[in-house]
Amino acid sequence: MDTRVKVESLFDLDLWSAQKLSLVEQALDRWVGQSAPASLTQPMRYAVLDGGKRLRPMLVLASSEAIGGNPRAALRAACATELIHAYSLVHDDMPCMDNDVLRRGKPTVHVKFGQASALLAGDALQALAFELLTPADDDLPESMQATLCRLLARAAGAQGMAGGQAIDLQSVGVRLEEPQLRHMHQLKTGALLQASVLMGAATGHAEPSAYRALGDYGAAIGLAFQVVDDILDVTADSITLGKTAGKDAEQDKPTYVSILGLERSRGYAKSLHAQSVSALKESGLGNCDALYALADMIIERAY
Amino acid sequence: MDTRVKVESLFDLDLWSAQKLSLVEQALDRWVGQSAPASLTQPMRYAVLDGGKRLRPMLVLASSEAIGGNPRAALRAACATELIHAYSLVHDDMPCMDNDVLRRGKPTVHVKFGQASALLAGDALQALAFELLTPADDDLPESMQATLCRLLARAAGAQGMAGGQAIDLQSVGVRLEEPQLRHMHQLKTGALLQASVLMGAATGHAEPSAYRALGDYGAAIGLAFQVVDDILDVTADSITLGKTAGKDAEQDKPTYVSILGLERSRGYAKSLHAQSVSALKESGLGNCDALYALADMIIERAY
């Protein structure tokens, strides 16, 4: 018997998220830009604090809860994923990349602080992510610290986010087939979303089968997130998005909507959602409420 | 009785460096840009391979030898420090920063591949540094992996290299006093040079007193390196340097030479060299030949 519907009905994602968000915001406020020169602290904090859905941290925390992980390690991992995400936005918005001036409803970092400061703040945020994962004065097992660094570095680097960005750069005005587009998104946004789920799992002791299932869940929601993002780029306005809408079409970038059309894109997002649900069922983990709810939330954004 | 002079006379730095350099070059060739999209692989490899003195890797390997560390861990740490150094050069050369077109006698990365690729390649090189330190398929102890990540992240980030860069940006046309200039350089170049020495030490089991002494050695040669760099900026030509000479004065950046004058700067470099030698003597470590010789080499560049 599938009891998931019943379980879900008892779980309040808004309440759960509000509690977790409060922890994450406080931790980021405490950890970002401390003891750094003021000219670097300001753009770093501007890039990170007071904005964003914190989806990656939520995935880390939900996954850590599912396997009964170490909460302090999970909070550090949660913030580390957000720092990588934040740095990528700062660099991605720069004039030599997407040249975007609006982000989360505010001027982008280079508009506010200049390009040199934006470049450096992004670089420092990436380093800070690995600092957070390797505390000397916390009693997190060093094997856990190493595993978290390994997962994050791979997701951020040339075989992950940065690699996806590079493919994206090459794809402007190019007609991609769906498999190529999927590969790009698996690297560009999927790798870090999946790593967030796996880093949550790495804060405890997941069985190999559960760890694999969480990886499948992360891959599915990672891709679903991007499909939905492409849908929103054509269906939502800039105020709702907090960033410039219609940017992809304007820049002649391939998207799921441009390749599959709007309705088939929505159908694809739904099937990815179903895959994520199926993976969680197979995980054998008991406490997946937040992971189920986050998968729902990701796809419901599109409607 | 001080037997150092005798020991040094038996040590051939050129031979030692050539052997180590060969290992480092092969490892970098193997590790940089593998399995990444070609458009990212090319600028990453261009930025890293076939150039540079590899001073940071040499310091890692020399320090690891001094404490009898794990050679495989040392090679990974050596390459990781070089990747951080290389990424910082790529970003530092960009138009929004120093806007330099020549590096190691070749066009800079953004001149060759465009600014977007330079930005991304730098980002990916930073991530790769942490990937190299956290192999899943190598039998390096995870506690060692975590310690290496901790040292590197701090040296690269807001309280290290990136922080120093931020101060540097703010200092153009500003009259700094020597303590402020020293602080900037301790962050901008000193932190990573010192971390290289400490990472070498972290590949084995250094006694706390030896670890502290190696830290003092690293701090002294780190600052000496920058003082000598400032001296060379006014005394050497672009061909010899492999980069644009006289750049600091042209950009009205404070340097040791502009603050202390040429002769006092040389004197300061000598006293830092003496400090580094003194630290090694106090370390109680037997096999410091390469560390002594590297300290000599750093200061002898100025003459």
Give a written overview of the molecule.
The structure is a homodimer of 303-residue chains. With 303 residues, chain A is an all-alpha fold. Helices cover 73% and strands 1% of the residues of chain A. The first copy, chain A, has a single domain (4-300), classed as Orthogonal Bundle (Farnesyl Diphosphate Synthase), CATH 1.10.600.10. Chain A is built from 16 helices and 2 strands. In chain A, strands 1-2 form a two-stranded antiparallel sheet. In chain A, a hairpin with a 2-residue loop joins strand 1 and strand 2 (106-107). In chain A, helix 5 packs antiparallel against helix 7 (115-133), helix 10 crosses helix 11 (208-235) and helix 15 (262-283) runs antiparallel to helix 16. The longest helix of chain A has 28 residues, at 208-235. The interface between A and B is large, with 54 and 54 residues.
Short description:
The structure is a homodimer of 303-residue chains. With 303 residues, chain A is mostly helical.
Give the tags.
homodimer, 303 residues, mainly alpha, Farnesyl Diphosphate Synthase, 73% helix, globular, disordered N terminus
